[in-house]
Known about the structure:
Layout: H1 2-22, H2 28-48, H3 58-69, H4 86-95, H5 102-124, H6 128-137, H7 140-146, H8 148-165, H9 169-182
Amino acid sequence: xxxxxxxxxxxxxxxxxxxxxxxxxxxxxxxxxxxxxxxxxxxxxxxxxxxxxxxxxxxxxxxxxxxxxxxxxxxxxxxxxxxxxxxxxxxxxxxxxxxxxxxxxxxxxxxxxxxxxxxxxxxxxxxxxxxxxxxxxxxxxxxxxxxxxxxxxxxxxxxxxxxxxxxxxxxxxxxxxxxxxxx
Length: 183
């Protein structure tokens, strides 16, 4: 029920913003910024503060996060995940500075994902509202609650394409490498 309510609130708030834009009260850029902020404020808390029982991998990754958080910094390289996804291990270790609870894990991983998607949609979309509709209706939002590492890697790959399109090859390479070492 919360997902439907959040989605309907997003549509209603976005329609109000678009009406203001149509009447000339705000310009296109401000409209896109407002819709992006509305999306972020509505969708981030739902995904970030979910229970570890929401999502197929959340409980498993919460346990992995707890194990990484309780591993000494000198022993991090001995963790099995280090060899396949060192950036993910380092992110978990960084997040564990604040807390080693499963809530900390879901807040940080989902926040990275949704903030990254919000910025990407704002930078690259010609119609921010429609991009958010596609994002929700094609289930990428719900996918992110099931697969945290894959979602962050997916978000970073969107930036790879964006930087490639804008001929920013160094950033493209950097984001590709980070994405590849997260998942």
